[in-house]
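=== RUN LOG ===
request id: a7f3
mode: sequence -> structure
chains: 1
length: 409
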Amino acid sequence: MGPAEGEVPEGYQSEVIWREDLGAAFREAKDNDLPIFVTFRCPPCDQCSVFDGLVMHGSELMTPLFEQFITVRITDASQIDQRLFRITEFQDMDLSWWGYFLSPDGKIYGVYGGKDHLGDHTRISETGLVNTMKRVLDHHYDPRLEKWDIDGDIPDLRGEPTLPSDLPGYKKLKRERPHLADQACLHCHQVNDILYMEAKDQPAFDKRTDVVPWPLPENIGLELDRDHGLLVVEVDPGGPADEAGIEVGDEIVVGDGRKLFSQADFRGVLHRAENGPTALTFYYNRGGQPAQAVVKTGEGWKAAKNFWRKSVYDGVLGAYPGFFPLRGPNTGKGKGLSVQPYITAKANHPAWNAGLRKNHEIIGVDGMSVDLTSREFLTWFRMNYEPGDTVHLTVLESGTVREIEYRLP
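=== RESULT ===
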């Protein structure tokens, strides 16, 4: 909770070397007692590409800190060893860039990364990463570290890696999407697809309540400064954080029994918590003095705008409507739903066979007429329909309202 007591040594290397051999990187880290910084990046994705370029090439602020880590870059999600990278707990797989900070023996110190419906610039920054790296270095070299024992277990890395292809949902996803076999690599969001393929088979699974990954700090009524990472800059009056006694200016230091280094670590505490009434214990510093806050949540507190997530709007959950929803003539004008369906006979989908054409304007779906963007519409549809359901569309054709009904395959 207080100031670090260790001394961070000079940089280990005179330049940043992005290693690709993870095993060799760990051996080097152990030999020199150095923390490890691993970045995952999906190169085909535009998302986070600017930030990834900044990290790859370094900067006046970042490079001296990178030189104090063993730096590793992985560009294929099929190589994620789950014994080490606990993706269901510590990685948002809908992001194409993510960072892990590890001890030389593989303990997870913390993570860095983030995005919301506005973009990635709202959750990550160069300054934010710099501050996170400084905290991790202070932590790694603190002589009290072994006594604290707060960084989780040392992973057992004996034997073969446990990869996404070893998950039960992998074969199911390949059957549903055979083009995976032709891909040069596995995309990050497709790992989520694999996990959801498995989850769908569980009787208790409910996509409306169980697909709530990586809630925002705002979900418990507070806002954290993007660049600092853990500094509270706003508290909702009467919200869970306010009721727990958290105030503007507090620095959240510990959550879920783990030291926090970044906003991503804070969000990880929320991610791993139950999506229902629960109590989350945080410790914070206020004016140099430590204090405790117990944040109490209610039903559905994890709900967030997840329409930007590819594993949601274009994943394996729910059903595809049979057309891609393009912007209609009134999209964004506050006049209700306005979708121009992109559909052709080549699709051979029941929607086409029922008479839906791309010159139609969809203004209602089973009574839903909310103005939605393309991804918002696809997300809403997948969250509300399953294969075999019947869909009723209200469309405008040359100014005339008509109804179209079809059954989802």
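=== NOTES ===
The longest strand covers residues 279-286.
DSSP finds 14 helices and 15 strands in the chain.
=== END ===
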